[in-house]
Amino acid sequence: MSAPNTISEQLVKEDQPKSVALPRGIRLLKGITIPVILILSCEILVRNGVIEPYLLPAPSSLWQSLTELAEGDLWQHLWASSWRVFLGFGIGIGLGLVFAILVGLNRHAEDFLEPTFSAIKSIPSLAWIPLLLLWLGIDEGSKITLIAIGAFFPTYTNTVAAIQGVDRKLIEVARVYRLKYWQQIHQIVLPAASPGILTGLRNSLSLSWMFMIAAELIAATQGIGYLLSDGRETSRPDIVIIAIILLAVLGKITDSIMKLFEHRLLRWRDVIKKS
User: Fold this and answer.
1) Considering only Cβ atoms within 10 Å of each terminal Cβ, which end of the chain, N or C, has fewer?
2) What are phi and psi of 83, to 5 degrees?
């Protein structure tokens, strides 16, 4: 989705109050305050015997466990989970965008597809696993499909809402300028709907990590979900906590990348606000 042309730039102006940006260092300190407090609290409680180490190991002892995992097959687990997420995410958002654009722009398509998609969207992720295992077995196909299902619906829902929420006045002005149908979509509808679409993509990425864990907890020999399951079965809370931390870090990194991508694509909004 490229930056909008002159017509939409003039018509999508938003009047919002300007906020004062805090220095980056202060924002970073605020962001790590709660994690630091939680880590110190856990360390104190475990060291003083309030919490048993077999239930929650001291944060200071996790480094040794992480080192042991890193010397082993930790990187293979990270790679296995990451490529499953990215492949399933790509398939899910691709299909989500196609169907969303079709439903958002065509009333007849909405009448046919929306009831079915609304019903399927209500099915919990765990309910898909037995069916996918029966159809696709325990190989990668079932895991990728489950992740794609998780990525599909946030993209589809947000894109449909964003397209249908485009101001009709923009379309009317486009017709005044005698833009063709596909020009209206490319130059008016998609740029105006891009904030909602990108929000859907970020939500889809977040759900892709969640669905990946659901898939790997059931049937996997590698991945972060496998580490979680293995740590539970071997009574190793340190491995479970490390797996959770790794999942949080990977999710945060990928979300930050998506946020930068979103900011880059929506730079035209800052230009409009300043004009």
Assistant:
1) C
2) -70, -30
* Torsions phi, psi for 22 (to 5 deg): -80, 150
Q: What single-letter amino acid sits at 182?
A: W
Residues 6+ apart with CB under 8 A from 149: 92, 125, 128, 211
Q: Are 109 and 103 in contact (CB under 8 A)?
A: yes
For the chain (275 residues), the mean pLDDT of every run of 10, in chain order, is 48 47 75 86 87 84 88 91 95 95 88 91 85 86 92 95 86 78 80 90 93 83 89 89 92 92 79 60
Structure tokens, 227: 């580490």
Rama region for 251: left / alpha / beta (φ>0; ψ in -120 to 50; rest): alpha
Retrieve residue 79's tokens: 């790679």
Residue 123, token pair as written in the block: 């099915």
Both tokens of 170, joined, read 């923009």
Nearest CA to 138 out of 225, 219, 84 is that of: 219
Taken in order 49, 50, 56, 59, the sign of the CA dihedral is: negative
Query: What tokens does 208 get?
Result: 């892709």
Within 10 Å of residue 250's Cβ, how many Cβ atoms?
Answer: 17
Q: How far apart are CA 216 and CA 77, in angstroms?
A: 11
The three-class DSSP label of residue 272 is helix
Q: Which two tokens stand for residue 257?
A: 């990348």
Total length of the chain: 275
Alpha carbons 273 and 262: distance in angstroms, whole number: 17
pTM for this entry = 0.81
